[in-house]
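Supplementary Note 3. Input sequence used for the single-chain structure prediction.
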Amino acid sequence: MEARGVAAQSADTVMSEAAPPPAQADSTHPQQQPPPPHPVMPGVESIPATLSHGGRFIQYNIFGNVFEVTAKYKPPIMPIENERFIIWGSYNLLILKINKNIYSSALNSETNEHVAIKKIANAFDNKIDAKRTLREIKLLRHMDHENVVAIRDIIPPPRRDQFNDVYIAYELMDTDLHQIIRSNQALSEEHSKISVLILRGLKYIHSANVLHRDLKPSNLLLNANCDLKICDLD
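The predicted structure, written as discrete structure tokens, is reproduced below.
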């Protein structure tokens, strides 16, 4: 991918420190209500969770895949399946494995937003893969467009001297165009606008002198309102 014209940003700048626990809400003001929970499938509600590093981090063992994220990220974390995703419940980005990358969803208790978290295991074992990860972070940190998926957070490691896995939190979308095509559902007027949304996103990406070299239906994320976001810019 060419990324001329996009300002570089060091990994130390990109990796933010863990946020402190949220302050107690003022009793004189009503607390913000969290979003409605996702439907939980049998066995998911019992996913083991263990506080670590003085309570700053929490570990989830999701069917043998260990996620260690800052403690602000709460369940539900629910798994799912097809050739690329696992699909349980109303949200399709819940837990899945693509190559060595593992995805899950979680609730950011500070913002009350459900996010998709990508775990890149042993991110620095391969120099080329590490550069691709850093390139995607740099690009998405600078991009701001309604048709390009946004990074919500870069979750820092508990200890810098044991920095092996990278965790990136993205906007959570419902599905992708590949699943829409496979579903054989009747197309609506909203579906007819998808091509326009793809072109809008590509025009924005190309304006930054960036080429998306792997544009395909599974890299075009959608939600129930037919909002579209292009992902996987690495």
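The CA atoms of residues 119 and 167 lie 5 Å apart. The chain has four helices and twelve strands.
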